Amino acid sequence: MAIRQGLLALLSQGPRYGYQLRAEFETSTGATWPLNIGQVYTTLSRLERDDLVSPGEQDEQGRVVYTITEAGRAEMERWFSTPVAQADRPRDELVIKLAMAVTARADVRPVIQAQRTATMRTLQELTRAKRANAGEPAQRLVLDSMIFQAEAEQRWLDHCEAVMAASPQTQETQR
Amino acid sequence: MAIRQGLLALLSQGPRYGYQLRAEFETSTGATWPLNIGQVYTTLSRLERDDLVSPGEQDEQGRVVYTITEAGRAEMERWFSTPVAQADRPRDELVIKLAMAVTARADVRPVIQAQRTATMRTLQELTRAKRANAGEPAQRLVLDSMIFQAEAEQRWLDHCEAVMAASPQTQETQR
DNA sequence: ACAGCCATGTAACTTGTTACATGATTTT
DNA sequence: AAAATCATGTAACAAGTTACATGGCTGT
């Protein structure tokens, strides 16, 4: 439920065509999440199906320009004014992995260790990307968010390790 | 890609039937993400389709017991030993929302404000849930993760507001 | 008798995602 | 002439999710 609303938000600034939407979406959110062009069109047809946008005639260059509808504008207002709830968020794969490792497995530490290394590397790349990023204030915020999240993850991993160390792991499970 | 692997991990401890899997999944990960029982069965049939589990005969009580296959075990080892990469994670709706608000809209502050209130409330509920939670070490870690994430979100929201205050918002867009 | 839990399953749908086909225009 | 970029679109699938149908068993 994010690309859908993202494209809608871009369309609320004025009519756009597909290719243009991808470009703007990527300059807003950055290269970290590349957006496949095909998805722009699938998403646009779903938005059209739901009467949130409507395609106009082709322009002089033969491009299909989409316009947001009143319902689309309302939906967008709703989106901006409604906070993202805990329940809306997808299940976090890492959290499930560690939870399962704790319940199912003996040795969680290598899992934590591998993740920590990966997250640290991610953090370095993010910092580098942030140094490189000159303009685009929105992109900078996206990078910052990722940095904050990665740091929180590191802290959580440390915390998990500490907890594991405190309560000695029950013996090696079967296999 | 999380429930799938989660159920597989539970099955790696020994044969289980559907209803039991939901119960164990929920005691591991907690009530924050309730798992619809229907999904257990759809996921199980997909795991079966991919030869990662195989259903046995019904037991004395007529329950269908699933067993992990060798391929399933391998897949699970791979899952545990491979860290979750940045690119694996789903797009964060809140981040996209703020990025879009920055590019498209004039006033980001009410969006930030609404989110901050919601996140703060979430944080209080999580703290309460943590106090209430007596046993289940895995569940406690899940709660901790959510708390760490919510705190990081608060910090990021503060940061966004600070950045917005520093660089005065370009004028009210159309509409 | 009836409520409620245990237990399995299916149909239908959503979003996200990619691979591929197709053609126009632009650059080298 | 070839390569790259602009531009649109479709088919196909994965995973997540819910609503619903069905039946057995248990406690009141």
TrEMBL record, chains A, B:
Protein name (Swiss-Prot/TrEMBL): Virulence activator alpha C-term
Domain of life of the native organism: Bacteria
Pfam families, alphabetized: PadR (PF03551), Vir_act_alpha_C (PF10400)
Signal peptide stretch: none
Organism this protein belongs to: Streptosporangium subroseum
InterPro entries, A to Z: Tscrpt_reg_PadR_C (IPR018309), Tscrpt_reg_PadR_N (IPR005149), WH-like_DNA-bd_sf (IPR036388), WH_DNA-bd_sf (IPR036390)
Organism phylogeny: Bacteria, Bacillati, Actinomycetota, Actinomycetes, Streptosporangiales
Domain Transcription regulator PadR N-terminal: from-to ranges: 7-77
Domain called Transcription regulator PadR C-terminal: residue spans: 91-164
